[in-house]
Amino acid sequence: MLFDLPDDDTLYTALLERDPAYDGRVFVGVASTGVFCRLTCPARNPKRENCHFFDTVAACIEAGYRPCKRCSPLQPAAEADPLVRRLLDALAADPARRWTEAGVAALGFDPSTVRRSFKRHFGMTFLEMARQTRIRDGFTVLAGGGRVIDAQLEAGFESPSGFRAAFARLLGQSPARFTGKELLKADWIATPIGAMIAVADRRSLHLLEFLDRKALPTELKKLRRAARGDVGIGRLEPVDRIAAELEAYFRGDGGRFDTPLTMHGSPFQRDVWRELRRIAPGRTRSYGDIARAIGRPSAVRAVARANGANQIAIAIPCHRVIGADGSLTGYGGGLWRKQRLIDLERALSDQ
To answer: Residue 232 contacts by C-beta under 8 Å, 6 or more apart in sequence?
Structure first.
């Protein structure tokens, strides 16, 4: 984090007043439009509940937002570095282009210099920025009911096989298999700590995971097997509900998650997950605490495995379990996210 962010109410006031003191230091992601802006953006002010604040451009992009065309939040860094400016202009002119280091070199730039410059300005490489833009745009087309070929073209993939491979890596399933009749539907949810994939049927949520979790394709494969059906692309009511609850959670307005859940696991795992949901926001417990609470005091390692097998992040708060010595332990979404969630909930409980 480049500096300590003020609270969200202060930042929203700064957004309403278009306070130049935060220009280039804080950005706002608007959930209703999917774009991120500088706080001085001249566009109409978004509603408070749709705003998420970030301290870096990389955090905005990783959360699934695209840059606003009115205030050009990437532009300040571009103006200071001609190399960055030229590549951003090229990306804006053709966001579907499949960039490679050879393509960067063809413009007369040294790929290693480009990597360092983009990392310094944005916290991610140019190739990472271009790839996330393409995948996000393709996913958005499919989620809106578009055809696979349209999503492929929107994402800038020249061949269907390349597009299928990219989506297979992301969702563990080729878009060619989507029929529109699947009982389970997946959609993208932007959060302040990264984009998430939510999978639901018409009645309940089955999976909620961070998009960049390496185990996501494996988890989706397990889910298809447990639910005895494929996962399509689209949004159902439980996803709308969990998205609204996540917005309130990150806004600091509550830590309750009442979206109905379907927990795919053994009876022991479900006992562990139900016990996790009894941990109040702002509190943490050890694996031993959980084992004793479910009446299995010697099953500490099994509890740890069940904790790691949880497929519904945040709503089933496996991030609230820490080591017996008080240290952070493994978290599929990354230890930095675990710390952010614990800090957020402690601040919430203090209020």
So the answer is: 178, 179, 180, 181, 182, 184, 185, 186
